[in-house]
């Protein structure tokens, strides 16, 4: 099958979508930081997909992309909590998070040490800028689906978009996305056990190497 990339921002419901697709038989990586993870997974969500969709579009021809549109005010409240928790580990020199994760958050949210990092107007603009960039990139194309997780039949719409037959959807009896990572909880993916989960840092013959966008001519 063709790859599927979930390109909604963090705290829009990427974990809920990822778990739902696990339950429909897909191999899913919630965050992919190695070439091997991308090669093995059917679906990759969150980092780095919400930043690197133009590069992934070129590396994986025929891929389909899912943009999750969450109401802005609840998203702002949630991302403020996440950034507060993550900020120390996102610092350029002292943060312990993976360089790709740091890059994606910096690309999306700007200076992560800024005094106004959590400002509502600033975060709203970050959300809208990402959304507008996605819609510009995929204008006049049919390989992007926008979903709102709380709308009726959004899961079935997604499944049909990525090629799951109506018979299989009916047999599964699942009509809604699971509600995960509510409030201040951020670890639902790690806690969820499933044989189709793909390790974020899965190693292959090139160990934990990621795609070299510069070598592939995919910078800018």
UniProtKB/TrEMBL annotation:
It comes from the Bacteria. PANTHER family: P-LOOP CONTAINING NUCLEOSIDE TRIPHOSPHATE HYDROLASE PROTEIN, P-LOOP CONTAINING NUCLEOTIDE TRIPHOSPHATE HYDROLASE. This is Sulfotransferase family protein.
